[in-house]
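cron nightly-structures :: item 1 of 1
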Amino acid sequence: MRDTTGGRLAADRPASPTRRGLLAAGLSFAALGARRAQAASATGVAPERARGRALLAAARLWGCQYQEIDPQRIAASDLDLVVVEPMLDDWSMRAIEPAELAAMRVKPDGSRRLVLAYLPLGETDTNRWYWPRRWRRSPPDWVGAENPSWPGSRYVRYWHPRWRSLLLDGPDSLLGRILAIGYDGALLDRVDAYLDWRDERPQGMDDMVALVAQTAARARAHDPGFLLLPQNAEDLLLREDWLALIDAHNKESLLYGLAGQGIPNDVSDVAWSLVRLKHAGAAGIRMLATEYLDDPQEVASARQRLAALGFLPFVGRRELDVFPGDDRPRDPGRSL
């Protein structure tokens, strides 16, 4: 969701692809499997988090849904991993209840399903339940311009104490509610927001790492097994302090969409991302990918290509308002 940069700006892209670079980006993912196993055994994570990582590694079918959610339908599905928006209705403040979540965490065969909550870190939606009404007409000075791709959403200076308090402080914060309901973890959206503030905040990448570290510390003090799944921001995957915080990574629009809906991405952009994604996979991070496509042939092709590259694929609508059903063919989804 909200993949407006593809992980980098146009000025950061290589001038042209080279065969050597593409081969380097796609180097033997099979060989990485052994390295990943060694890395995972050496991480020293809490036993509860290790169990969650094992479920991530075993997942073969996953998806996201942020609108029109039916908890009972998810509970009855064959999904191994699902990411949902915790608030079902902003107007009535109807959230997914702990009992509903408990049912969603168990698959029909009695095995465990991971259920993660959506958590925006680098951007706010001024129409959402958590945004104070007094700020809707007159936002504070740490709120930036509107994101032209998502009306109502605005960039935020995510290092500001007031934003961090809204996210993390107390039982009524976004994270506080997620923890109280009992989610297995959170998908962290807009961790690439440091690109929005490159001129104003040169240390913005460090600020984002610090914010996620604070999120991890507070969440894991409550639940040592709490999983973190950021998306995009591939440059962060080259940082060891970042890899120590996260458990999985979702890359949006790796193959399609940077130049428009359904348009294949330039091979140089794909190669640039793969170098960084491969590095994280070798460090034991579970690699997922999301494409937004409608054409059935493109959908089938994207799933096949992503699985061949070692990702656990999900293909959906950009609005993420449709049940990510269990009627799709299961894919090996080999890990990076």
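cron nightly-structures :: done
The chain has twelve helices and 15 strands.
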